[in-house]
Each structure stands twice: as structure tokens, then as C-alpha cells.
Amino acid sequence: MDIETLYQKFKASSSVSTDTRKINKDDMYFALKGDNFDGNQFVSQAFENGAKYCVVDDDKAVINTNCFLVDDVLTTLQQLATYHRNAMGIPIISLTGSNGKTTTKELIHAVLSTTYKVRATIGNLNNHIGVPLTLLSFTEDQDFGIVEMGANHQKEIEFLSNIALPDYGVITNFGKAHLEGFGGVEGVIKGKSELYDYLRDAGKTVFINTDDPKQKRQIGNYQRIITFGKDVDNDCVVEFSKADPFVSLTYNGTDIHSQLIGDYNYGNMAIAVAMGHHFKVSTEHIKKGIENYQPKNNRSEIIKIGTTQIILDAYNANPTSMLAALKNLKQLQAETKYLFLGDMFELGDETEQEHQAIADFAESHFEEHIYLIGENFYKIETRHHSTQKFTNFEDLKPMLKSLNLDDATLLIKGSRGMALERILGVI
User: Fold this and answer.
1) Exposed (0-12), middle (13-18) or buried (19+): which is 143, by Cβ within 10 Å?
2) How many Cα atoms occupy the beta-carbon half-sphere of 287 within 13 Å?
3) N or C: which end of the chain has fewer CB within 10 A?
4) pLDDT (tens digit, 9 = 90+) per residue, 254-288?
5) What is the pTM (predicted TM-score) of this model?
6) How far out from the chain centre does Cα 302 lie?
């Protein structure tokens, strides 16, 4: 079946789904394959649960005339998403980066939504499946679509860009994330910059944070640029004010106070301000959008349990974000501080070195209450006799119950696989 014909069937559907357990009435079901499943085996269940059409790539799965046989379901999903993106014709804003992608995406959405009709990536559906699903959720009556792009190896952002065909793009930062797949920090810069390269070649627009030296040095590579930062010659002048613990910035003579902690979130906020500025959102509405945004989903959340203040930043971690979180905790005014740091993943040959560096920094700036969790942290050397290491969360649990955390401030930070938010259920 050709894409144009399939597109007409898509337009007659309510939405798309890749999970028969979550199908809504009149959905179009795409029978994707994974390492441990084959969606072709669930076509009957899809129809029973309300699907209107099913797209399959196994001829044995064609059980009625509403099944459409294609060469490859995933490729078809991606092609359909691009076809839909072109048919809608709405401006697409894409973003990537090592840290802060989802928070930045939500901040941009919060700012632009004060003035325009906007939809954005839900959660972190930012890979080769999530980006097509995001595009297919957009409608032509929107003013903007915001697409988050994630990657852990070279050419992935290039591939996603050629699906989403963005008109505008921004990179949050270049950090020590997915070093194993990218081949080091320079590989990260090259890989993330594939978004800017696509925009340059397509004659589209990049947003560049001139306060970031790694981004500023790239300015000469692109023609259509919107710059932002503290320098007065930027297209959008925005400047960091303070983080005590919530981050504030100044823009157009106005102080904007967020509900985000950590000065590392300033760059994410500045992107949203720059987007609002470029698309002529009023200063009042930019301020409203940022100040009303509340972090969630274990990302830089502040939680109070009795007299205990918890900085829950357990959605993910890499050396750059871990160091930023520790520096933020260091500057906070708190009498007693506890550190619960979990393993960082996908660091390849630099795993031991990076975990040792984080432990060294923690022990250099905090005298006690340092708890390191995970097999990677367990292997490194520590200097303080009070620093405690645990191979996993289950080993940590008995000790947690013995702590007196009254009037203390806790930092909980680790990679997603560590699921350190479980600490909240124990303390």
C-alpha cells in the first residue's frame, strides 16, 4: 500500500497506537516488532479492543480487509509521520542535547501556549518510534509543534531530523552523556550538532546560546541564527540572576522567578525565553509561562516530608548533570545535607573514571552523609570513612530506616535504571 493511500486511512482513524493494551476506538494499530515481541501476533486483539485498521508486515497477520500489509511496519510508521508533517504544514520546533531536553521542551510549550495553540512530545517519546508518534499526534489547526529528539550514537539526530523536518532547532547543551555510543565528548558535540547541520542545509533557523562556549564557537557555521544570552548584541538578551534554590533570570527589564532548582536550569529557561521573544510572545506572558511551570516526573522536584527537604532528580544522570546537581547542593543554605548518588550508565570505557571523579568531588565538598549506590560506584575508591557504598538499592534500604533526617536537605540523583525515587518510600 502506498503512503498516500495509507494516509487517507490514517485521517479516517482517531489516532495511532503501537500497544494493543492502550488502543482507543477507531485507532490505527501499527504491529511493531521488538527483541521480545512481535506486534503481528496481536492483530486480533487490536481489533477486539477497538482498532479500525492494522498495519502489519507478516502476511499471516492479514485477517481481514482492514489489515494493510507493508514491507516494514516501523519504516512505514516513520514515512507516514513525515507525510503527515508535510500535509499539516505547521512550523516544527525540534530540540536535542545531553541534559534538560524534556524540561526545556515543557518550558517552551509553557511559554508559547500562553499565546498560541501548541502541542509537544508527550513525556520523553523522543526516539525513532517516539518522534513519528509525536508527529502523528499533531493537527493542522495548531500554530506550532514541538519535537524532542534523543540520541545515544552518531547519525541518530540526523535520522530523526529527516523524519520531523524541523523549521527551528535548539541544542540544550553538550555534556558527558551516552559517551559509550558517541565515542567521547567530541562525539557528543558532533552527534547533537546534526540537528543544526540539518537546519543549515535545509535553510532553516537555529537558536544558539552564546553563554555556552561550545555552542558559541559554532556560530560561523550557520546563516540563519537566533542568538540569546547575556551579551547585549544578542537577538534576545537574557541573564541569570540567582538560584536560592529556585532559579531566577532577567529579561526585558523583568525578573522571572521559576519553580526550578539549580543554576543548570537557567539555560533551559533561557531557551524558552528566546523562543517566546522570537515568536513575539509578550514579556508578561513569557513570565507567566515560566513561573507557572512546575517540574515533575522525578526531574528537579523539591519535595517536603515533614521537616525534610528532598531534591528529587532521579529521572536520569550523567557526569555533567551529576556534577551540576552537586554544585547546586553545595551552594544551598542547609544545616545538614545528605547525598544519595546512583550509578551513571552508558559511559563505556570512561565508566570507572567518571564515577571516581564524582565521588572525589562529593568528598571534597561534603564532609559526611554521602551514600553511593550501584555496582559502578561500589568499585571506586573513597577517602572519607563515613562515605558508604552499596551495590544496589536493596542493600541500601535497611540503612535508610535508621537515619534521622529531621531538618535535613537530601539530594537523590541517579540514572533511570537505578530508580532511586524508591528512597521516598522508605525514609
Assistant:
1) middle
2) 12
3) N
4) 999 999 988 889 999 999 999 999 999 999 999 99
5) 0.85
6) 19
